[in-house]
User: Fold this.
Amino acid sequence: MRKIVINDIGKISHADADELMRVMQAKRIDDEILDTLIVCEHDEIVTVGPRARNDGIKPPEDYATSAVDRGGGLTWHGPGQIVVYPIFKWDLDGESNVKAIISILEDWVIKSLSEHGINANRDERMQGVWIGENKICSIGLAFLRWTSRHGFTINYDTPPGRVEMVSGCGLGKDTTTSLSTLGFNLTRKQILDSLIDNISLLSREIYSE
Assistant:
């Protein structure tokens, strides 16, 4: 059984969040803290993973960028997006490889959105969560001693056109979008509440900070 601390820290710069994740990952490895979900929001920035750097994929010039070491390519961050970073030691049954862990997170998001009548799904083109032909949730993790940093994003009401202009690896522009653009009007609180309601997919014991 996993005990989870939920730490909703609100808006934080991506640089400060990255530093916080590294500190907390080290503490989790040493069992100084429990598995912790950092919930936050960033000012607009596009994080560039190794796959995008290796393939020479970049966002348009008017986007701030930051290189990261998580899996995946380009990920847009900004207003109208909920960001969830699990600082977890993945050592339970069914968590033996990265694909299985990604699948657990996808299931969590899909189940949470289904509470609002949203039929979300996986897509063979790229990990994450999709609605039809559009991606609304990106997932990318980095591991040290099987303890994760980084996590996933859900675009619920992003500024028109901003996330749509950032192409994931192998995806065209306008593929990634937000729930509001697809006609689903959910608030950050509604999404977070549903994630917490369905957190039994990760654990049965929850603590809040």
